[in-house]
Amino acid sequence: MIRKSIIAFVLVLQLFAQPLLADESVDPKNKPIIDKHPDTMSVEDLGFSGDETKVDLQYQKDLQARSDMLQIHQTLGLITAVPMTAEFVLGVVTAGNVANGSTDTGLHEALGIATTALYVSTAMFAILAPKPKGLKPSGNTEFHEDLVWVHAPLMVAVPILGEIVDSEIQNHQSIGSLGAVHGILAATLLISYLTSLTVITF
User: Fold this and answer.
1) 64-111, pLDDT tens digit by residue?
2) Residues 29 and 62 in one domain
3) Do 41 and 56 share a domain, yes or no?
4) Domain carrying residue 71
5) Is 34 in contact with 98 (CB distance < 8 Å)?
6) Is 53 within 8 Å of 43 (Cβ atoms)?
7) Rounded distance, CA 43 to CA 49, Å?
8) What is the C-alpha end-to-end distance of the chain, expressed in Å?
9) What is the pLDDT of residue 70?
10) Residues 168 and 180 reside in one and the same domain
11) How big is the CA angle at 170 (ends 164 and 171), to the nearest 5 degrees?
């Protein structure tokens, strides 16, 4: 590192001193001509290969792109938490109404679709973000990624089960224990998602 710093300093000094020390001659049009020195140092002379420089620049570019996309991922994650929480509360209210004979589940279903769409959009920014080689998650980031294996499958299972329950309700059929299972899975989804969001935000 010290050797490279010394060579870099010499290169910069040479670049600034070259115009002052170079021999000048005059062409027929009286324009000064600066002698070109064939020993000008290159990046390779400093101990860095061209390939190493390109790799480093690409790494920095990917790292910046990843940072930008994960910031959007985090922002959308916070936004998604609002309808997801509201969807759970509304689900509890809807379940009570259904128990009293109501079949009106339209608002609960519509909010569920909106929540799912936001969740997928949030996830895509994390999935598509460049991941530079050798970059490994640790600490809260690792825990955040581990929780994906909990709430991501549930984000698929809960809406599917909800659709089955809703179909039974609309056909005036008994939902049996399906409603309770749907509620338990929805609660697990919300808790795991909010926990994942909390550990990466605070």
Assistant:
1) 999 999 999 999 999 999 999 999 999 999 999 999 999 999 999 999
2) no
3) no
4) 50-201
5) no
6) yes
7) 7
8) 38
9) 94
10) yes
11) 90
